């Protein structure tokens, strides 16, 4: 049971990390559109 729980956590973490990369690429490609959805992301990219 514990092992499968760890696997699920790892999958969730890798998914959220890849989502972060995707949103950063979107923010770079289209700052105006992404800034409305993810303001923090725009700040990180524009700095």
Could you list some keywords that capture this structure?
47 residues; mainly alpha
Structural commentary:
The N and C termini lie far apart (44 Å). This protein is mainly α and 47 residues long. It has one domain. Helices cover 91% and strands 0% of the residues. It has 3 helices and no strands.
**Shape assignment:** rod-shaped
Distance between the termini: 44 Å
Helix content: over 70%
Number of structural units classed as domains:
1
The largest sheet is:
none
> What structural class do helix, strand and pairing data support?
mainly alpha
What is the overall pLDDT average?
69
Helix/strand order, N-terminal first: HHH
Supply Rg: 14 Å
- In quaternary terms, these chains amount to single chain
Assess the beta-strand content as a share of residues.
under 5%
Number of helices: 3
According to DSSP, the number of beta strands is 0
Low-confidence stretches: none
């Amino acid at each position: 049971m514990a092992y499968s729980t760890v696997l699920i956590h790892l999958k969730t973490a890798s998914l959220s990390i890849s989502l972060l990369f995707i949103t950063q690429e979107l923010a770079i490609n289209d700052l105006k559109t992404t800034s409305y959805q993810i303001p923090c992301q725009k700040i990180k990219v524009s700095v």
